[in-house]
């Protein structure tokens, strides 16, 4: 016999609504929101049961091909939550919000980021692509505007003119990226989720997120690769 999914309450619905309107929610925010929703709607609140609370919502989202997913920020290793549409790939999901030419710029930017050594693409390289688009050529000024929008909408994030995939984008597109970039997309050797910004072992080629590298090598005088045991030649953060 199947265990019936726990009931959705107004607290669950309120939590889901806020998560959807945020696009992505940092872990400590999600914990506060959990408490707020339970207290507002007079639903029993257990502070250590956020994951159970979310899996109740997920069991009701399943028939709608949606899911709240947890992912880790590649910058600081913090947990984040995003609502993912499982029925659509990233590109169809974005297609309702962007024009054909904007999507092409995004895909090309994503190529650059994923094929790069460190998970970043410079604005110069991205803007050079703008006038080679198949849909139609895009002026640099236009392309700069579009990149700004991708950052505002949390598909890309930018540091000093270098772009990478936003945590939201990684959570939503992990499957898409792993299947479309099979030869180059790496999973982190430590946490086993997709690693865009990563350090790579020069000997055996495995990759690790920077926060995972930091944790793994903490307190080791001589960092060695967890897979091949060769000296880890990257500067550990």
TrEMBL record:
Pfam families: SMC_Nse1, zf-RING-like. GO terms for biological process: double-strand break repair via homologous recombination. The keyword Zinc-finger applies. GO terms for molecular function: ubiquitin protein ligase activity; zinc ion binding. It is found in: Chromosome, Telomere; Nucleus. InterPro entries: Nse1, Nse1_RING_C4HC3-type, WH-like_DNA-bd_sf, Znf_RING, Znf_RING/FYVE/PHD. One of its GO terms (cellular component) is chromosome, telomeric region. It catalyses: S-ubiquitinyl-[E2 ubiquitin-conjugating enzyme]-L-cysteine + [acceptor protein]-L-lysine = [E2 ubiquitin-conjugating enzyme]-L-cysteine + N(6)-ubiquitinyl-[acceptor protein]-L-lysine. Residues 188-229 form the RING-type domain. Its EC number is 2.3.2.27. Its main location: nucleus. Keywords: Chromosome, DNA damage, DNA recombination, DNA repair, Metal-binding, Nucleus, Telomere, Transferase, Ubl conjugation pathway, Zinc, Zinc-finger. It comes from the Eukaryota. RING-type zinc finger-containing E3 ubiquitin ligase that assembles with melanoma antigen protein (MAGE) to catalyze the direct transfer of ubiquitin from E2 ubiquitin-conjugating enzyme to a specific substrate. Involved in maintenance of genome integrity, DNA damage response and DNA repair. Belongs to the NSE1 family. Component of the Smc5-Smc6 complex. This is Non-structural maintenance of chromosomes element 1 homolog. It comes from Peucedramus taeniatus (Olive warbler). The gene is Nsmce1.
């Amino acid at each position: 016999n199947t265990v019936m999914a726990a009931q959705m309450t107004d607290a669950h619905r309120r939590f889901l609504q806020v998560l959807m309107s945020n696009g992505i929610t940092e872990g400590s925010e999600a914990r506060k929101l959990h408490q707020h929703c339970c207290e507002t709607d007079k639903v029993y609140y257990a502070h250590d049961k956020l994951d159970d609370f979310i899996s109740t919502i997920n069991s009701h989202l399943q028939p709608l091909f949606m899911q709240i997913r947890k992912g880790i920020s590649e910058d600081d290793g913090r947990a984040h939550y995003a609502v993912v549409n499982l029925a659509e790939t990233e590109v169809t999901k974005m297609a309702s919000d962007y024009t054909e030419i904007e999507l092409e710029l995004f895909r090309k930017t994503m190529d650059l980021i994923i094929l790069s050594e460190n998970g970043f693409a410079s604005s110069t390289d991205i803007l050079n692509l703008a006038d080679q688009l198949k849909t139609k050529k895009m002026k640099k000024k236009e392309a700069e505007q579009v990149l700004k929008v991708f950052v505002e909408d949390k598909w890309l994030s930018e540091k000093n003119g270098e772009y990478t995939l936003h945590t939201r984008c990684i959570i939503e597109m992990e499957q898409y990226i792993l299947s479309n970039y099979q030869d180059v997309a790496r999973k982190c050797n430590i946490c086993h989720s997709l690693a865009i910004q990563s350090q790579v072992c020069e000997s055996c080629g495995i990759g690790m997120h920077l926060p995972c590298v930091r944790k793994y090598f903490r307190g080791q005088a001589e960092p060695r690769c967890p897979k091949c045991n060769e000296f880890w030649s990257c500067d550990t953060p």
